[in-house]
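so the lab meeting is tmrw and i was supposed to have these ready like two days ago... anyway. pasting both below. for each one the top line is the aa sequence and the line under it is the structure tokens. i havent really looked at them closely yet so no promises
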Amino acid sequence: MASAARALESRLSLPGVTLWPRLVVTALLVAAALYALHRLALWAEARGWIYYTRRGSSGSLGNAFLEVQAIFEPTQRHALEERQRAEEEEEEDDDGDPPRPGA
């Protein structure tokens, strides 16, 4: 069994190269791949394909908590309705249509 482990180790090791340089090169390759993926995601976000770093505040979790709070405190209903109205207006502004007359 020990001879099989030595044979595998000799096949995986590069002659004259210690462990540290291989680890450094591997870490640099991983970092370069992650940076390339990051740049690709930024490019896709700029084209409008995905949301990556510049997300709008969805507030969906906050709205859910306001719904629950509105059950116990009916005065919070107004805050929830205002937040939902503001989100709808923001979505309308982002759709690219020209502004409505009088708005």
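ok protien two:
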Amino acid sequence: MIKQIQEDYHKVPEEIIADAGYPTLDEITALTKEGTIPYFAVPTKGKSQEASYQPQPKDSPEVVRWRQRMESTEGQTILAGRGQVAELVHAVMDHLNLDRMVVRGM
């Protein structure tokens, strides 16, 4: 997706926001090195929220900064704004029964 934005607009986005589970730690590192600030929810995977924000031995410096950013009040506020936009679209689609579409034969 970032490569498509670069091709279309000839620059990288300043920030990117997404749910947990989409980016990998390598992608967070690459995005940061390209100049994009990632705001992705930190997956807990059975851990407490506090433990999820702690740097892990395998973390790159960029991932450590991402964990710190997402633990901050500013990071949480920015990520919360994502839900106000994306979840509204999903709710409207559900209301219009567009959550599942059969595309076979189209």
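from a quick look at the 2nd one: The chain has a mean pLDDT of 84. The first helix runs from residue 2 to 9. will dig more after coffe
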